[in-house]
Design a protein that fits this description.
Blueprint lengths: L2 E5 L2 E4 L4 E8 L6 E8 L6 E6 L6 E3 L7 E6 L4 E6 L8 E9 L15 E2 L3 E6 L1
Length: about 130
């Protein structure tokens, strides 16, 4: 079975930093585009960031550009999201997701494109 397991969420004050991680198993990690999405209560799921198979291409939502950095370590089967200058509006459950790709440079910001999803980790930013 494929498992994506997020960790690193928690409570942080506005202006602070947090790094969340997603460890993958049951798949050939380097063949997958990885993405991060988030969802706040009562709101639609929102794309956050995506990274291509070997990390050469990244994509970010305008709301997080310049503050968040996505990266991956294929030797550890892990994707990361470094979140800096956090704002209360960043409060949400953060999900990692994976989709198989034959394109070395491909990324997608469409949630329905992703095949596998983690259980999510809560990030709360206090004012």
């Amino acid at each position: 079975q494929v498992f994506l397991v997020e960790s690193g969420g928690g409570l942080v004050q506005a202006g602070g930093s947090l790094r969340v991680s997603c460890a993958a198993s049951g798949l050939t990690f380097s063949s997958y585009v990885m993405g991060w999405f988030r969802q706040a209560p009562g709101k639609e799921q929102e794309f956050v960031a995506a990274i291509s198979r070997s990390g050469g291409n990244t994509d970010y939502a305008d709301s997080v550009k310049g503050r968040f950095t996505i990266s991956r370590d294929n030797a550890k089967n892990t994707v990361y999201l470094q979140m800096n200058s956090l704002k209360p509006e960043d409060t949400a459950v953060y999900y990692c997701a994976a989709v198989l790709s034959s394109n070395y440079f491909y990324t997608t910001n469409v949630g329905s494109d992703y095949r596998y999803w983690g259980q999510g980790t809560q990030v709360t930013v206090s004012s």
